[in-house]
Amino acid sequence: MSYIRTKKHVVLSICLLLALLLTSFPQKLEAKSSAFKIENGVLLSYTGKSSTVTIPSTVTEIGSFAFSNNKYVQTVTIPKTVKTVGESAFSGCTKLKKVTMKSGVTTINDYAFSGCTKLTTITIPKTVTSVGSGAFQNTSWVKKQKATYVKVGNGVLIKYNGKATSLTLPSTIKYIADEAFASSKITKITLSSSVKAVGERAFANCTKLTSVTLSSKIKKIEASTFYGCSKLKSITIPDSVTEIAGSAFQNCKKLSKVTFAASSKLKTIGFEAFSNCTSLGSVTLPASLKELGISAFENSGITTITIPSSITTINYGTFRNCSKLPVKKEAIQMW
């Protein structure tokens, strides 16, 4: 009997020792499905405390602020089902170190990973074609990027580190992210035909920029793309462009000439697109144009403007305070 008791004590001791050893080592905490709030494929929030998170394959979009300021997550895997990483989705995740995005993600929105100060490793697939303002702001990863042209995904330029001020972009660049050149010292830039899209505020407040040659593949000049380029003198809008968005050339004080391609497909000039362009003189709008947005040319210096018969909408204030237009003041204010 004593032998049997001794044997039981030995087995029990071994079990206790194994349990102690297992609990002595740090364990990788996997996220529980109950911690994810998902509606119609959008991950709205994550309330878990796991260090390792794999986004469920039922998710197609990571919503704005879904993980914002989470103090536990260190590693995130985003599956191929996800197409969009929302605004500030992971902002302020100060312990986040590694992000793996599977092929499928196309859009990383504004400030998606902003303030992830320990983020050093991020895998961005070739499917990504759009990156928003400050998407990687204040991350260790972006601070390590020293290339002249910092590109991610499918040739998306997110940052320019060069010293040259007169540039012809290489053909490896297909997309220009929001604010990629904002407030830089560039004086001249030519976008090669490989460039398909330019993000919002991409060249905003480039106060030394005097010359721009746009790519023939661009379909839209986004909001505030050239806002505040106070020395830009002229621009030719290629025939591929169908829309000039709000404030695209606002406050371009030296802009005196806007030329539209003979075969222009332009449909819309947006809100305040050319407002405060005080050096503008004569403007001939293309025959394809349908709509002039609110305050599109407000406070500009235009002296004459040719409006095509194709126009269906001239919004309020389009020519407000255009004092050099030879039209009755009342009519200008209405337009």
What is the approximate shape? elongated
Q: Which stretches of 5+ consecutive residues score pLDDT under 50?
A: 14-28, 328-334
Largest sheet: 6 strands, mixed
Mean pLDDT over the full residue set? 91
Strand content: 15-25%
Mind explaining what this structure looks like?
The protein is mainly β. The chain contains 3 helices and 26 strands. The strands form 7 sheets. A 6-stranded mixed sheet has the order 1-2-4-6-8-10, with no helix packed on it. The protein has a 5-stranded parallel sheet with strand order 18-20-22-24-26, with no helix packed on it. The protein is elongated and about 70 Å long. It starts with a helix and ends with a helix. The model is unreliable at 14-28 and 328-334 (pLDDT under 50).
Short characterization:
This protein has 335 residues and is mostly beta strands. The chain is 10% helix and 23% strand. The protein has three helices and 26 strands.
